């Protein structure tokens, strides 16, 4: 599970998704309510699983993203969008240079990019 708190968001290591999580500091937007944190954690889990090639997770991510984008603080949404896009782009770039990379995973990462950038 990807964990969030008011100070850090944990993301898969961009070079090895199975490795330990990488922490990055987030701006303080005030206290994040527990229910909001839980929603963001579910969204993280679905998004990263989708980017990592799980089609079922992509369906969950689409629903969770629409719900979060329409109801949560825009700063939290933009912060999340930036991290998902960074990871998804990295996955697609791996496909360019690694003949062993999964084409299905790359295509699902592109689906996530399209979802996150639609108007």
Verbal overview:
α1 (34-51) packs parallel to α3 (74-97), α2 runs parallel beside α4 (103-117) and α3 (74-97) packs antiparallel against α4 (103-117). It is elongated and about 45 Å long. The protein has 119 residues and is mainly α. The relative contact order is 0.15. Helix content is 62%, strand content 7%. It has one domain.
Beta-strand content estimate: 5-15%
Give the helix proportion (percent range). Answer: 55-70%
Query: What's the number of structural domains?
Result: 1
Total helix count?
Answer: 4
Distance between the termini: 29 Å
Principal-axes shape call: elongated
**Quick check: average pLDDT?**
80
Major sheet description: 2 strands, antiparallel
Total count of strands = 2
**Elements, N to C (H/E):** EEHHHH
Class based on secondary structure composition and strand pairing: mainly alpha
Largest sheet: spatial strand order: 1-2
The radius of gyration is 14 Å
The residue ranges in which pLDDT falls below 50 over 5 or more consecutive positions are 3-28
List keywords for this structure.
mainly alpha, two-stranded antiparallel sheet, disordered N terminus
How do the helices and strands line up, and which of them pair or pack?
Layout (H helix, E strand, L loop, with lengths): L7 E4 L10 E4 L8 H18 L3 H17 L2 H24 L5 H15 L2
Antiparallel strand pairs: 1-2
Helix pairs in contact: 1-2, 1-3, 2-4, 3-4
């Amino acid at each position: 599970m990807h964990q969030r708190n008011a100070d850090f968001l944990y993301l898969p290591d961009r070079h090895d998704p199975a490795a330990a999580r990488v922490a990055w500091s987030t701006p303080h937007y005030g206290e994040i309510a527990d229910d909001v944190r839980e929603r963001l954690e579910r969204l993280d889990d679905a998004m990263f699983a989708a980017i990592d090639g799980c089609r079922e997770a992509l369906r969950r991510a689409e629903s969770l993203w629409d719900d979060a984008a329409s109801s949560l603080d825009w700063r939290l949404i933009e912060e999340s969008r930036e991290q998902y896009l960074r990871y998804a782009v990295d996955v697609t770039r791996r496909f360019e240079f690694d003949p062993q990379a999964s084409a299905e995973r790359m295509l699902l990462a592109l689906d996530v990019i399209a979802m996150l950038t639609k108007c």
